[in-house]
Amino acid sequence: MTKFFLFCSTIIYNFISCLNEISRLGRTFVDTLNLIMDFEEKGIRVVSLSPSESWSTIEDSHYRRLLTSLFGWVAENEKRILQERIKVGIERYKKENDKWGRPTKEPDKKEVMKYRKKGLTWAEISRVMNIPASTLYKYRDIWDERSRVEKVRGIVE
């Protein structure tokens, strides 16, 4: 963003800059509005190629400023409302479900052990079975712990 602004600040006056959507110019309404105002002061007119932003082609800079402010405000409010909805949805999901995130799937231990007997390393098995190596190592440790617990139970009983 800074390089773009520096580039625009060196451009001659009465330059017209075209972009696909004005809303992509800044992260927030304030950023977008400030950039457009700075460009206008430097004689750089920002024109959107989007049909929904045809108001940017209006000749009168006062009307363009008014509409830029209005649409920027609307866009920022839509973004805020969407973020609130997402947050509420995530909280509701977490409340209704035990786990958040991608469900885990335990690799087939028999298949893994078959490859181990053939002499494949854990990394090779992860590639063959299309399982992340970290997942395979995690389950290797879980399986080792289970077998140790079973041995202890067998001794104690």
UniProtKB/TrEMBL annotation:
A GO term for molecular function: DNA binding
Ranges for domain Resolvase/invertase-type recombinase catalytic: 20-98
A Pfam family: HTH_23
InterPro entries attached to this UniProt entry: Homeodomain-like_sf, Resolv_N, Resolvase-like_N_sf
Family label: Belongs to the site-specific recombinase resolvase family.
Name under which the protein is recorded: Resolvase, N terminal domain
Originating organism: Methanococcoides vulcani
